[in-house]
Amino acid sequence: MITLKSRREIDEMKRAGEILVDTHKEIAKMIKPGITSWDIEVFTDKYLRSQGATPEQKGFEGYEYATCASINDEICHGFPRKQELKSGDIITVDMVVNYHGALADSAWTYAVGEVSDEVKHLMEVTRKSLYLGIEQAQVGNRIGDIGHAIQTYVEGENLSVVREFIGHGIGPTLHEKPEVPHYGEAGKGPRLKEGMVITIEPMVNIGGWKAKMDDNGWTARTVDGSLSAQYEHTIAITKNGPEILTYQGENE
């Protein structure tokens, strides 16, 4: 069942999004060679609670952390750890914020120190693909319009879109209907309606799109060892167009 949110509920989710955005902006300041994803985890957990919010994914289906921290060839759901990051690495930090029952979800990929032109291209294409998908999040469009816009652009840049992990509806729980793939056919899938709130979160690889799971049962990584990036926003479908509830402002 797809739930439609009222303006009040969307505004509450936007407040959760503002806290999430502030957290990402603080994390961006921390990213440098020598930092660990465990440092980011500890900061995030403490910061969210200082804002009267809680990390929604901590305890979700047994997941133990406030963040997912996916490094290099890890696609998603990487565990925070005490391994130091080095120049040339990339790290995706994904989190879900619960503020008085309202949820917001956003992931961002960060470059550590100096990265190669190939990695810069990966990050730029992934981020742009997110916004191309968001442009299609209009009342009356279909879910397939979002995925088609993302896939067409990414593959045109000789990169690949992960198939196994997709976006989703959000609120009142973390994973709601509808499913939001980042690939597909235009004009297909559920129709977008005013009041829907979804995540769009393309995961893009330098190599092939296929994923494999680590023994921990959570972390997915590329089969071929190529690097992977991800950017994600929480989006409200409104009569005036898509409203990004986790927008980071002019510095995005």
From TrEMBL:
Co-factor binding comment: Binds 2 divalent metal cations per subunit. Has a high-affinity and a low affinity metal-binding site. The true nature of the physiological cofactor is under debate. The enzyme is active with cobalt, zinc, manganese or divalent iron ions. Most likely, methionine aminopeptidases function as mononuclear Fe(2+)-metalloproteases under physiological conditions, and the catalytically relevant metal-binding site has been assigned to the histidine-containing high-affinity site.
Primary role: Removes the N-terminal methionine from nascent proteins. The N-terminal methionine is often cleaved when the second residue in the primary sequence is small and uncharged (Met-Ala-, Cys, Gly, Pro, Ser, Thr, or Val). Requires deformylation of the N(alpha)-formylated initiator methionine before it can be hydrolyzed.
Entry keyword Hydrolase: yes
Name recorded for this polypeptide: Methionine aminopeptidase
Record-listed a divalent metal cation 2 binding positions: 105, 168, 201, 232
PANTHER family with a match to the protein in the record: METHIONINE AMINOPEPTIDASE
Catalytic reaction equation(s): Release of N-terminal amino acids, preferentially methionine, from peptides and arylamides
EC assignment: 3.4.11.18
Chain positions recorded as a divalent metal cation 1 binding sites: 94, 105, 232
UniProt subunit comment: Monomer.
A GO molecular-function descriptor: initiator methionyl aminopeptidase activity
InterPro entries for the chain: Creatinase/aminopeptidase-like, Pept_M24, Pept_M24_MAP, Pept_M24A_MAP1
Keywords linked to the UniProt accession: Aminopeptidase, Hydrolase, Metal-binding, Protease
Claim: Metal-binding is one of the keywords in the record: yes
SUPFAM superfamilies attached to this UniProt entry: Creatinase/aminopeptidase
PROSITE patterns in UniProt: MAP_1
Required co-factors: Co(2+); Zn(2+); Mn(2+); Fe(2+)
Enzyme class: hydrolase
Family under the similarity heading: Belongs to the peptidase M24A family. Methionine aminopeptidase type 1 subfamily.
Domain Peptidase M24: 12-239
Residues reported in the UniProt entry to bind substrate: 77, 175
Pfam families the UniProt entry points to: Peptidase_M24
